[in-house]
Specification:
- The chain has about 500 residues and is an alpha/beta fold.
- It has 3 domains: about 5-245, P-loop containing nucleotide triphosphate hydrolases (Rossmann fold, 3-Layer(aba) Sandwich), CATH 3.40.50.300; about 260-340 and about 425-503, Rossmann fold, CATH 3.40.50; about 350-420, no CATH class.
- The strands form 6 sheets. Strands 6-9-10-3-11-12 form a 6-stranded mixed beta sheet, with helices on both faces. It has a 6-stranded mixed beta sheet with strand order 18-21-22-15-23-24, with helices on both faces.
- Helix 4 crosses helix 5 (about 155-165).
- The radius of gyration is 24 Å and the shape is globular.
- It starts with 14 loop residues before the first strand and ends with a helix.
- About 45% of the residues are buried.
Length: about 500
Amino acid sequence: MNANKHDTMNGTPLLRMSGIDKSFPGVHALKQVSLDLHEGEVLALVGENGAGKSTLIKILGGAYQPDRGEIELNGQPRHMSSPTVAQAAGVSIIYQEFNLIPDLSVRENIFLGRELVRYGFVRAAEEHRGAERLFAKMGIAVDPDAWCRELTVAQQQTVEIAKALSVGAGSVVINEPTAALTTQKIKHLFAIIRELRSHGMGIIYISHRLEEIFDVADRVMVLRDGTHVGTYGIGDVTREGLIESMVGRPLEAEFPKHKPAIGRERLRVEGLRRGKHVQNVSFSVRAGEILGFAGLAGAGRTETMRIVFGADDPDEGNIFVDGDLANIGSPRDAMRHRICLLTEDRKGQGLVLKHSVRENFGLPNLNRFVWGPFVDHRREREELAGYIETLNIRLADPDQPSEHLSGGNQQKVVLAKWLARHADIVIIDEPTRGIDVGAKYEIYLLMNRLAAEGKAIIMVSSELPEILGMSDRIIVMHEGRITGEITNVAEATQEDVMELAVG
């Protein structure tokens, strides 16, 4: 790999960050990190959770102040003392969680705080025309008067990009933009990015999906443990080399192999229905098996799993656990049948982020940790310590807030609290969404280990390589129905899965 390709690019960089250093109590987050971004370039920024990507971008956007280092725009030193100053200087950050106000229109969101006013009145017609020009520049059509709450995720994303263009941003950071997008919407987003690049805009693109990096980026910069490992021309690095650069070691395989010892049937679902989202769904999963559920967004996979876990009531259908009809009307009923669900939204539904790791671990297990009106915190800590060791959960202290953990470690905490209930049927919805490649590998190893212990695993995933790499059997859904089952996974391709997924 050629780590110095960026040195050959001509001209003064649009953006330069030099020797950026940042420490927090107990953590040296960034160590002399430097970054160059040129006009008309897409620079991918990659690294494991905790590598320093977010800290670096927050410094660029004025949310954090560096301990040392300098920032230059077009060769001129700039002090990003606040997000407002950074935006005025031509730097826009588009975060994974959008900053749109749902009850305002597209136009109002774009010009919020910078309204076009004459004689005390907002010039709505002029703002409308301005918004249309911005969308035309991106080659898309969005109604400026539509309410933001009525937009799709992809449309909200384009509104955020339009906001960046409206302030004359020359440098834009797009953070994890495709987590909730379908394949077609991702292609549309990439077309917009290429259009912006053709107009000379510099774009920093952050994603854990490595296939996207090779599709959209010109160069890729790697951070590891707060250190700048290298910056490579996209044609000078392989996927395997990039992974090794990110994690600091070669991975034997992206998806660790396991030899399933398939046992008896643990869960059987017959004729499950709920409105138009789940229609006549039947399947089974056995001990030691990893059953993959594939499909496009809105296919009904998550809705099916919520019914199995008792979070939603079915209109009809039966669920059998170990051959016996199970009356599951609530998550508490599912837990009594040793069924657990790791939700796709671990932050919104899997964890109470403001609470400590210990408290989150104890929530579904309080019946074992309470003595009268008191919680036995010592026993709670002792049991949690065992899972911290076996799952390799990286944290400073069990009493630290869960929101301070990386995505991979948050996922492990959710897994730990359910394993502590000795669940035999483990449903994992999007197990590695927003998780870096190193943490993904650890999650895969854990899934293999659980299967080897005789647990039945159901894995819902939108990542086709993950579905094919980890599943012993695959069920594909489309518009609430099962459209096919793949039993010979070793010979299956992504095209095979997609053919079933589109109905």
